[in-house]
Recover the amino acids of this structure.
């Protein structure tokens, strides 16, 4: 490290002309330790060596070095810019529909007469959030169970293989989930849904249609939510598993030494330690569920209502599925309106994801793992 | 807890009878024991519950898809196929998927790799932290939003149109953060001694990164890229709105609609049952569903192959690092 830093310093003396201030800054951050530590004589010696080493061809090599650094930094900046660009382009494209106000409903079929994009996006946001929350409510307990199974119950040797099985769920393309959901799962669920409507119909979520029945075939939001639950299971499980595995062994052993059963040990040592991990895992899962398109698009028979009835078709629709369903036949104004709804989805998922990441990051800070 | 205490203290034997004491201490309150058993059962059930959809899904794709998955299916497009004709295949869709995903990889791998290099070799301070955070956030962009972004980008540049490359850009947005994350992890595994040895020999930093760091990590990087490809190759939603559908073969990613395998599954499913005239030969009512399942099976096989090869690469070509 010292040689390298001194080498660069020495070369800088050699061709000071082309050195901008930019490279100075860069060098300072990278070689700061070298120039600070090296006392003057060592440094002078190193510069001498460097000068001798600086034979022909060095100059171009140095330019390449700087060029490569710029390339790397530019790529980093590019990532920031892409994310900004996503937001900017969506806003630019959504602007015509947002500015058109209520008249947008004359041009765009799916927007109810006399309402603006902002009013029309309401039921979509409602449907999106409802589907995702129900999926989350189903997936989180199961995921915690699986994570505990892999981290604390399964035999050590089998654990990673079993974990891989759960990860396989993440490798299956969403369109295959959609196909499976509508052609295999839905027919199986109909008797269950009928039972739910009959006995638990007083709960708004399980209410039947006007005749008091569940829809058949069950192309309803509950089916879509269950498929979503399966799809987000792997990511929630993966994060929970990691967190559970990092529980300090001392905590666990202390609990066991005090006579706790395995479950008591988990409740007293593992779960409290992993609480923030579970929360952020759930939010990551929520982010996935909010943005998932195909399962909903293929399973759900859409509607545009603020309706809690999850066992009846033609009630709700999600933003993502609505975009995929309507985009190809849309007029320019229709594109704009759909992009406006996409912007809403982007904002919602970004907020959820950032919150999840922030929790993870904060946890990392005070867990002492690094 | 309380019950154990009372048995231990209430009927506590005088010092000396250690057998009794041992028995009292090792006996667990039945309620607690039952709860422990119940929770164990619940945890086991949770795992089984997760396996049910996996098994059911794999089974239904295999059983319903394998019937039609043959060389004919893989080597023919849907051109001039209509109604319930017992013909047609996914060749155009497979080709489209490979082209679109290939271009996506071509865009995202250099960028993702350079971002990882930046983060590991150069990154310090605010920018690096911001990039790390944003890469994490980027993994959460909904795929349909990535599609809308690509559409909007090309809309402003060249007007409304569909082309394979637009889908590639959308997939690249989804793929880049995955590449960055995995490459970053791999580059961090390269021991610092190697870098320092290279610097000591007078090798400039950029050459050190290319010849030493990236070389050492190449197996891991390949694995990461393949897993990233496997992740996006099944994306459907962004391709529906950017690449569209067609029944014919299109090898040109810069013009006109292309079919891709996931969209093919969706499209065939959407066509539903066909009605055959009574006594019609060469007419299968469920032909569209059959093709959808066969294409789904093809897609899963491609994804699994990518995953397996990725794992094999990392196992066989990983450098032997001694701690």
């Amino acid at each position: 490290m010292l040689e390298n830093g001194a080498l660069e310093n020495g070369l800088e003396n050699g061709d000071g002309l082309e050195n901008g201030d930019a490279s100075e800054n860069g060098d300072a951050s990278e070689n700061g330790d070298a120039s600070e530590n090296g006392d003057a004589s060592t440094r002078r010696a190193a510069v001498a060596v460097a000068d001798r080493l600086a034979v022909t061809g060095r100059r171009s090599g140095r330019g390449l070095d700087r060029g490569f650094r710029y390339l790397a930094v530019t790529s980093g900046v590019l990532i920031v810019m892409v994310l900004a660009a996503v937001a900017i382009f969506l806003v630019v494209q959504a602007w015509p529909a947002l500015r058109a106000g209520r008249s947008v409903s004359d041009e765009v079929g799916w927007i109810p007469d006399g309402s603006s994009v902002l009013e029309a996006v309401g039921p979509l946001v409602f449907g999106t959030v409802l589907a995702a929350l129900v999926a989350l409510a189903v997936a989180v307990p199961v995921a915690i169970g699986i994570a505990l199974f892999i981290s604390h119950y399964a035999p050590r040797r089998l654990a990673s293989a079993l974990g891989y099985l759960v990860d396989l769920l993440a490798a299956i393309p969403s369109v295959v989930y959609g196909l499976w959901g509508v052609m295999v799962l839905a027919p199986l669920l109909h008797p269950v849904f009928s039972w739910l409507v009959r006995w638990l119909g007083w709960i708004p979520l399980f209410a039947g249609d006007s005749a008091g029945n569940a829809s058949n075939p069950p192309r309803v939001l509950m089916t879509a939510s269950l498929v979503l639950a399966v799809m987000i299971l792997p990511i929630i499980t993966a994060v929970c598993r990691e967190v559970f595995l990092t529980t300090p062994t001392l905590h666990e052993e202390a609990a066991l030494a005090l006579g706790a059963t395995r479950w008591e040990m988990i409740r007293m040592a593992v779960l409290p330690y992993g609480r923030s991990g579970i929360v952020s895992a759930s939010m990551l899962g929520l982010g996935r569920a909010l943005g998932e398109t195909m399962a909903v698009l293929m399973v759900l028979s859409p509607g545009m209502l603020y309706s809690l009835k999850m066992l009846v078709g033609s009630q709700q629709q999600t933003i993502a599925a609505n975009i995929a369903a309507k985009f190809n036949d849309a007029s320019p104004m229709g594109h704009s309106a759909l992009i406006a709804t996409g912007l809403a989805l982007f904002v919602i998922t970004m907020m959820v994801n950032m919150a999840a990441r922030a929790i993870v990051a904060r946890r990392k800070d005070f867990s002492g793992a690094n | 807890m309380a019950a154990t205490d009372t048995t231990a203290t209430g009927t506590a034997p005088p010092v000396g009878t250690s057998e009794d004491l041992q028995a009292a201490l090792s006996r667990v309150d039945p309620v607690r024991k039952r709860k422990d058993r119940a929770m164990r059962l619940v945890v086991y059930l949770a795992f089984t519950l997760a396996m049910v959809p996996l098994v059911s899904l794999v089974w239904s794709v295999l059983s319903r898809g394998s019937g039609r998955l043959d060389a004919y299916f893989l080597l023919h497009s849907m051109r001039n196929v209509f109604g319930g004709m017992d013909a047609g295949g996914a060749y155009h869709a497979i080709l489209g998927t490979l082209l679109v995903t290939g271009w996506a990889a071509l865009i995202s791998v250099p960028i993702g790799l350079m971002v990882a290099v930046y983060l590991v070799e150069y990154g310090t301070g605010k920018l690096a932290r911001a990039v790390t955070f944003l890469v994490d956030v980027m993994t959460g962009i909904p795929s349909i939003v990535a599609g809308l972004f690509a559409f909007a980008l090309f809309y402003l540049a060249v007007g409304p149109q569909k082309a394979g490359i637009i889908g590639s850009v959308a997939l690249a947005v989804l793929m880049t953060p995955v590449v960055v994350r995995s490459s970053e992890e791999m580059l961090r595994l390269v021991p610092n001694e190697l870098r320092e040895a290279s610097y000591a020999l007078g090798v400039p930093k950029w050459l050190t990164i290319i010849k030493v760091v990236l070389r050492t990590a190449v197996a891991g990087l390949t694995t990461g890229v393949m897993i990233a490809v496997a992740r996006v190759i099944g994306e459907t939603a962004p391709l529906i709105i950017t690449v569209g559908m067609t029944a014919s073969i299109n090898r040109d990613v810069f013009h006109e609609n292309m079919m891709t395998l996931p969209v093919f599954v969706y499209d065939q499913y959407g066509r539903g049952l066909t009605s055959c005239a009574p006594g019609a030969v060469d007419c299968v009512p469920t032909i569209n569903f059959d093709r959808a399942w066969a294409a789904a099976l093809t897609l899963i096989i491609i994804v699994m192959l990518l995953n397996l090869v990725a794992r094999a690469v990392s196992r066989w070509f990983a450098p032997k690092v001694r701690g």
Notes: Chain B touches chain A through 98 residues (CB under 8 Å). The longest helix of chain B spans residues 30-65. Residues 1-10 of chain B have pLDDT under 50 and may be disordered.
